[in-house]
Amino acid sequence: MGVELFANQLDAILESGVNVHGQDATTGPTPLHVACQYGNVHAAAMLLHYGADANGVVKNHDKLMPSPLSLACRHNHIDVMQLLLDHGASWAMADDDGNSLLHVCIASQSQDALLYLLDVATSSGVNSSYSILDYRNHEDETPLHVAVKFGYVDAVRALLRYGASIDAEDSQGRTPLVLSIMENQVECAQLLQTQSHGVHAHVEEQKQDEEESGGDDNTAVHDESSLEQLQSYLFQVLAHTKGSDELSHAVYQFVSHAQRQIRALTNDLQVERFASSYSGA
User: Fold this and answer.
1) Partners of residue 63 on adjacent β-strands
2) Per-residue pLDDT for 70 more than 70?
3) So which domain of life are we looking at (predicted)?
4) Distance from CA of residue 266 to its chain's centroid?
């Protein structure tokens, strides 16, 4: 009832000829921006019906405000995103920092919005037209760079699954893998290293292997071996990377720290098992 009453009131206001492009205090958002930010799909649909621009560009003083679609992405409003795209909202619009829709989803950790965009982009052929998977912001960062920088593991997995480039370099010559080392993002680095060797890990199979082979001790040994392989691979990459001396030092620190963590975990597990077997004797 409340939604119906609101819709009738809004319809009456819009029917009266109010300016659907009007800004709050001349420098603020339009009604469509507000509807998209708060996920009010009914209001957004009516505003679009009465002529609101799905690609409405608004400036707040000298700064470009996010587009309606960017706001919907940022706040994970899938139904509003679909509505805007159906009304011609552009994939190609970027913010003042050059961030694309995927960059925005990742920075705000809007996983549902990210997966929706990736699915629509690949199924509709949008990625072929705009290369949104590897679109670069003003720092030459692809969405994968940003996901790695924030340690957003789920986004890294999704981007890799949809074919994001692991070889793209940012403005400082860093690939996502090198950046993961610099930012000490261990899990991201392992995912990227696995991808670089063309191996697609299957979590359920790994769990089954762990159960059949004795579990955590063998896993720890495997993880340490993987780190050594990662270290070797990284030094090959760094030979062709700017500032390789500084990065080499970071690699040593990263791998050494991770190895210490694995060994400490292994020792703790052994102590727990000994204590458990002793108490049960």
Assistant:
1) 60
2) yes
3) Eukaryota
4) 32
Q: In angstroms, rounded to a whole number, what is the distance separating the alpha carbons of residues 167 and 164? A: 9
Q: List beta partners, residue 60.
A: 63
Q: How far apart are CA 145 and CA 87, in angstroms?
A: 31
User: What's this model's pTM, rounded to 2 decimal places?
Assistant: 0.69
pLDDT-based confidence at residue 281 (cuts at 50, 70, 90): low
Q: Which residues contact 35 (CB under 8 A, 6 or more apart)?
A: 41, 43, 44, 47, 68, 80
For 146, list phi and psi in degrees, rounded to 5: -65, -40
Question: How much is the pLDDT for 210?
Answer: 47
How far is 44 from 32, CA to CA, in rounded Å? 6
**Cα separation, 202 vs 221, whole angstroms:** 19
pLDDT tens-digit map of 78-91: 999 999 999 999 99
Distances in whole angstroms, Cα of residue 44 to Cα of each of 10, 36, 48, 60, 91 = 11, 7, 6, 21, 18
Strand partners, 64: 59
- The model's confidence at residue 35, banded by pLDDT at 50, 70 and 90, is very high
Please give the sequence-ordered ranges of beta strands (E in DSSP) within 129-216, or none if there are none. Answer: none
pLDDT of residue 14: 58
Q: Across the chain, what does the average pLDDT equal?
A: 77
> Averaged over 249-272, what is the pLDDT?
63
For 104, phi and psi rounded to 5 degrees?
-65, -45
Residue 18 DSSP one-character state: -
Closest C-alpha among 183, 170, 193, 190 to residue 242: 170
Phi, psi (degrees; rounded to nearest 5) at 267? -60, -45
CA distance 5 to 50: 18
List of residues 6+ apart from 78 with CB closer than 8 A: 112, 113, 116
